[in-house]
Design a protein that fits this description.
Layout lengths: L3 E2 L2 E10 L6 E7 L2 E9 L8 E8 L2 E7 L13 E6 L2 E12 L4 E11 L5
Parallel strand pairs: 4-6
Antiparallel strand pairs: 1-2, 2-9, 3-4, 5-6, 7-8, 8-9
C-alpha cells in the first residue's frame, strides 16, 4: 500500500508517547546517519508558544516545541522541510499533546517524501 497526498508520499506515520519528558529521536537513516530529535520545553511564565529548529551536527536536526500546552494538538500548520532522504526531499509534520503538568507528551507524526514522476 502507498499513501499519497498531492505530490507527497507518506513514508512513515505513527503515534508515540514520550518516556517522561525526554526527547523523541527519529533515526531516519543509518548510513549516512540522519537523526531528527523532537524536544518539548516549558516555561510556565511565558505565554507564547513556538517551534524552532537547530542543526546540532552534520547528522542531527533538533526541533523544539516551546510551551505546546497552550494549544491542543500543537504543531506546525504545514509540513517542515527537514532534509533529503534517498535523493528525495523529506518533510515532517506533527501534533503534540502534553500530559498532566508536563509529566509526558504524545506525538502524532508523519514523514513525507516527494513523489518522483516515474514511480
Amino acid at each position: 500500500m502507498r499513501i499519497i497526498s498531492g505530490n507527497q508520499e507518506v513514508i512513515e506515520s505513527g503515534y508515540v508517547d514520550s518516556f517522561e519528558m525526554n526527547p523523541i529521536e527519529f533515526r531516519l537513516s543509518e548510513s549516512p546517519e540522519m537523526i531528527l530529535r523532537l524536544v518539548v520545553e516549558s516555561e510556565p511564565d511565558d505565554t507564547d508558544n513556538s517551534i524552532s529548529g537547530n542543526v546540532e551536527s552534520d547528522s542531527t536536526l533538533v526541533i523544539t516545541a516551546h510551551n505546546p500546552h497552550r494549544k491542543l494538538n500543537f504543531g506546525p500548520s504545514l509540513p517542515l522541510s527537514v532534509g533529503t532522504l534517498n535523493g528525495r526531499a523529506l518533510s515532517f509534520i506533527f501534533r503534540i499533546n502534553v500530559m498532566g503538568d508536563y509529566n509526558s507528551y504524545n506525538v502524532a507524526y508523519t514523514f513525507y517524501s516527494e513523489v518522483v514522476d516515474n514511480e
